[in-house]
Amino acid sequence: MKRLFAVPLAAALALFALPALAEPVKVVATFTILGDMVRQIGGDEVAVTTLVGPDGDAHVYEPTPADARALGAANLVVVNGLGMEGWIDRLVKASGYKGPVTVTSTGVKPIAGEEEHDGHGHDDHDHGHGAFDPHAWQSVANAKIYADNILKGLVAAAPDKAAVLRANHAAFEAKLDAVEAEIKAALKPIPRKDRKIVTSHDAFGYYGKTYGVTFLAPVGMSTEAEASAGDIARMIRQIKKEKIRAVFVETIADPRLLEQITRETGARIGGRVYSDALSAADGPAATYVDMMRHNLQQFTRALAPAS
Ligand SMILES: [Zn+2]
User: Fold this and answer.
1) Are residues 284 and 143 in the same domain?
2) Distance from the alpha carbon of residue 135 to the mean position of ligand 1, in angstroms
3) Is residue 14 included in any domain, yes or no?
């Protein structure tokens, strides 16, 4: 009788104690690239909520009441900084969140904000308008700084989990080293003067600076409006003048325009590249490392000398 009573009591106590021990650190990350990094380093020790989802635009995001609730319940908030998330301060204030905020770009050497190209500002989307280019994660060297900052934030939030967090961080850093070596090796055979790419989204400044690729954002291209005939003509002139080999222009969906650009310039039209957001889980860029690898394949395929 006594024994029958004792066993369920012990079980009940164990059940009561377990959730407290296994409670993950609740982290809110502003967009998918940061969310992935937190997951890589936090592993099972974190529960990550990402505010701007796959393929979303973190520059112009409008937070929801659910976002404020997620922040209100968070132990740690992880942001990019450098003016990327113009909406985050208001959201933090509205949510009542008083906890720590990890600014992942802390320690990155920032590139100055977007320049006007030949007097034509490109307005593809509301790109920060700040003093700095926020897309620092596009250099893997910077991603390592991001990872260090995230590790620091997670260890401070959950010091009892420091050992496993450090082990996860080391594993992630090894992946970053590997993909960085791949990028350098793949670009090496392509002469520096041939590494010129046009994108409609001016998000590859850090990539270009780190890996020696010239990225040009064509004049007057917009993600909202359709490219005008004048836009296309200017773009064709620029592609010819700069002898650009590869063009990544997601916004020009009209196949006749793509044909016109390839016919008149000889440039190749590249596939989809990911800059500010990861793909959905079943897409080609579900993690940061997958994104860098996917973009590299797209860039090198487009830049490879014509045979
Ligand atoms: Zn962007």
Assistant:
1) no
2) 6
3) no
Q: Measured in angstroms, how far is the CA atom of residue 221 from the centroid of ligand 1?
A: 14
Same domain flag for 149 and 250: no
CA–centroid distance, 267 to ligand 1, in Å, is 24
Antiparallel, parallel or unpaired: β 196-199 and 214-216: parallel
Distance 5 CA to ligand 1 centre (A): 62
pLDDT tens for each residue of 236-255: 888 898 888 888 876 665 77
- Domain check: are 244 and 213 in the same one? yes
- Are 111 and 170 in a shared domain? yes
Which pLDDT belongs to residue 232? 79
* C-alpha of residue 30 to centroid of ligand 1, in Å: 13
Full domain range(s) for residue 49: 25-177
From the CA of 84, how far away is ligand 1's center (Å)?
8
Report residue 218's pLDDT band, with 50, 70 and 90 as the boundaries: low
Whether 30 and 162 share a structural domain: yes
* pTM, rounded to two decimals: 0.84
Tell me the pLDDT tens digit for each residue of 139-183.
999 999 999 999 999 999 999 999 999 999 999 999 999 999 999
How many angstroms separate the alpha carbon of residue 247 from the centre of ligand 1? 17
